[in-house]
Amino acid sequence: MSDSIDRVRSVATSAAHAALADLVRTGEAPRPTNASASGEGWRVTVLVSADAGDRPDLTACERDVLSILAGHQGRMSSSKVLSELEQRSLFHGESTVKRALARLHKLKLLGNSRKAPRGYWLLAVLPLFPLL
After folding, report:
1. Mind listing the pLDDT tens digit of every residue in the chain (132 residues)?
2. Which long-range contacts (CB under 8 A, 24 or more apart) does 9-18 make?
3. Where in the chain are the domains?
4. How do the residues of the chain divide into helix, strand and coil, expressed in percent and rounded to 5?
5. Predicted TM-score (pTM) of this structure
6. CATH number belonging to domain 52-122
7. How far apart are CA 120 and CA 101, in angstroms?
8. Alpha-carbon distance 58 to 11, whole Å?
């Protein structure tokens, strides 16, 4: 049995903690973004997202909507979000869900397209590429 340390993972973890500390120091509201750098055979991708659990300004419906979209690949219409909420026994009125989607979009936590393919998506997840 080897007691070796995974130095690559150690560097990545250290960089994640340093980035988090730097982001907190900005004083900005959490919002999704991403960045990428490459060289010497390595590619580093940083994906920044807002943690809904740390956002006391979000309603229960907004948190539920974020959990639905976080577990879904692709875009979802408001009616699909409402159906998925009901399937999980998370009951919110249609107008409440639509207001939640609009507010989350305004907070830049969700993207929304009125052109095909239509719907909402979690900005930290889709689209990930192309990176900046």
Report:
1. 456 889 998 999 999 999 999 999 999 877 777 788 999 999 888 877 766 666 778 899 998 998 888 877 789 999 999 999 999 899 999 999 999 999 999 988 898 988 888 899 887 654 444 443
2. 15/44
3. 7-48, 52-122
4. 45, 15, 40
5. 0.60
6. 1.10.10.10
7. 8
8. 34
